[in-house]
Write a structure and sequence with these properties.
Helix content: 40-55%
CATH topology of the largest domain: 7-stranded beta/alpha barrel
Number of helices: 18
CATH class of the largest domain: Alpha Beta
Number of domains: 2
Strand content: 5-15%
Radius of gyration: 23 Å
Shape: globular
Largest sheet: 6 strands, parallel
Distance between the termini: 52 Å
Length: about 500
């Protein structure tokens, strides 16, 4: 068999927890469900654990756990929510990865993901490192093995991020074909060929050489087929999906991989019953054997990479302008409302950058006196987030503290580590992706900013909120009644904090 198919789903939701309670609050727009996590879990995540194959009379012939057959990554914050709120779905996904290990020569279908979906090229270097380390540790916690691949948020990429991933044992990632800049065959004297738009051949992996001679691998997904799945109704019919996948092979007699990549929510949430089309295609390919289902890691292990690629720095799969969607009014938007603009994006990022400067400085200065290495300690803090029990916290302090800490010093360490966590959460990509600053996503990121601000203010001599709001004054809403980002912060975010029904969740407290 020389023809292989890999269907990849990027399953992700932004962190939605109330930072003062640790729970997701009711979201009216998700009705009749309590919140969007709950709604999408029912329509997509659970649906894909038992997608039905229907007979000619509409009877269910069998149910397929799609996760056993497709490549997938699930956002760490989402997976932790599933573990707590939908344990049966969580167990079915973890078990699917274990089954795929036995079917795919020891290479599981699950990929890791950078931790809370911030845009890596725009992140500070120590945040990039933490995002990768937290993503790896989170993956190991849930799946019980080391990840081979890692999905990058919005597939936003730069060479520094790839280098950090390589340093942490990651072998590959998946990018859009328009992110390829040039390619060449591996071999002496081979010359670079520049590729334009989506001109790269996506049917085999590429290696990329990084600083210090490090080697990494990139798979470019098939963009036309992926677009048809995501936006052009290909999931309406399982036979059509099967034929479109098979039609993407070339006539060459060599090993080929046809791979697609879309948001995993496409399979059931964005397209109702989309999980059924995937299951139907999986069963047809298995029964008729025109190709073999695989995942990226297995294909790479079997056939290696004989082509080299170079990428466009600071590019992504969802912004035609690189990564500008997450810092400027580049023109990328969801709807084209007359008279609307997204100039607010730059001011929102400026405000968060201002706050981040303070948090990082206070954390490094203050915790540098209490912890052996504050940044190494922050990387290790993922252990506390995954297991917030007294023994894990005790072991963390025993390993990281310069000396035995009194209760005030412990409080300072936990406060500032939490401030660091929320300082990364506030940069989650969804805060900039959509059109309006008063939307649910930017407001959620402002909640994280306020929580981070609260935690760091007792250890900082100057007022933080005043200058922060001064920057947000320039972030004008497209809805006149909403005013500016500062008005939204004062009128929505701050009162939301004040209405929090329970005391703030704190690592010193048993959760």
């Amino acid at each position: 068999m020389k023809r292989f198919i890999c269907i990849h789903g990027h399953f992700y939701q932004p962190p939605r927890e109330n930072p003062w309670t640790g729970e997701v609050d009711a979201e009216e727009s998700a009705a009749p469900f309590h919140d969007w996590n709950e709604r999408i879990a029912a329509e997509c995540y659970e649906a894909n654990t038992g997608a039905p194959i229907l007979g000619p009379k509409g009877q269910v012939l069998e149910r397929i756990n799609n996760y056993e057959h497709i490549s997938f990554d699930i956002g760490p914050t989402l997976l932790s929510w599933m573990r707590r709120k939908t344990p049966d779905v969580y167990k079915a996904i973890v078990q699917a990865d274990k089954i795929s290990l036995s079917r795919r020569g020891g290479h599981g279908n699950a990929m890791a993901q950078s931790y809370n979906h911030l845009i890596m090229p725009l992140a500070r270097d120590h945040d990039k490192i933490t995002q990768v380390r937290w993503g790896v540790k989170d993956f190991e916690f849930h799946y019980g093995r080391k990840p081979e691949g890692m999905w990058l948020s919005e597939s936003a990429v730069d060479r520094r991020t790839l280098s950090i991933m390589a340093d942490h044992g990651i072998l590959y990632t998946v990018l859009a074909p328009h992110q390829a800049r040039r390619v060449r065959h591996v071999g002496f004297g081979s010359r670079w060929k520049y590729v334009h738009h989506e001109g790269v051949d996506p049917r085999h992996p590429y290696r990329i050489l990084l600083e210090g001679g490090k080697q990494f691998h990139i798979f470019f997904y098939d963009a036309p087929v992926s677009r048809s799945i995501a936006f052009q109704g290909l999931l309406h019919n399982g036979d059509q999906l099967t034929q479109r996948l098979l039609g993407a092979f070339s006539g060459r007699d060599r090993e080929q991989l046809v791979s697609t990549a879309t948001d995993g929510e496409t399979f059931g949430h964005h397209h109702r019953h989309g999980e059924m089309a995937v299951a139907w295609a999986v069963r047809r390919i298995q029964e008729q054997r025109p190709a073999r289902l695989t995942n990226y890691a297995e294909f790479l292990d079997r056939y290696g990479s004989f082509w080299e690629a170079d990428i466009y720095e600071n590019s992504s799969w969802s912004c035609a302008h690189g990564v500008e969607r997450w810092r400027s009014d580049c023109g990328c938007r969801i709807n084209h409302q007359e008279g609307w603009n997204q100039r607010w994006r730059s001011y929102l990022r400026d405000a968060f950058d201002f706050l981040k400067d303070i948090i990082d400085d206070v954390y490094e200065t203050s915790c540098g006196k209490l912890l052996k290495d504050p940044w190494e300690a922050r990387d290790a803090y993922i252990d506390v987030l995954l297991r917030p029990d007294a023994e894990t916290k005790r072991q963390f302090l025993a390993r990281q503290a310069r000396k035995e800490l009194n209760m005030d010093d412990q409080r300072r360490v936990w406060d500032l580590l939490e401030a660091e966590r929320y300082s990364m959460y506030m940069f989650t990509s969804c805060g900039w992706f959509f059109d309006e600053i008063s939307g649910i996503e930017p407001v959620q990121m402002m909640k994280y900013a306020l929580r981070a601000m609260e935690l760091v203010q007792p250890y900082y001599l100057k007022d933080i909120e005043g200058p922060f709001l001064k920057i947000l004054e320039a972030a004008k809403s497209n809805l006149p009644e909403m005013g500016s980002g500062a008005d939204i912060f004062r009128d929505i975010v701050r009162p939301y904090r004040d209405r929090a029904p329970r005391q703030p969740v704190h690592p010193l407290k048993e959760n």
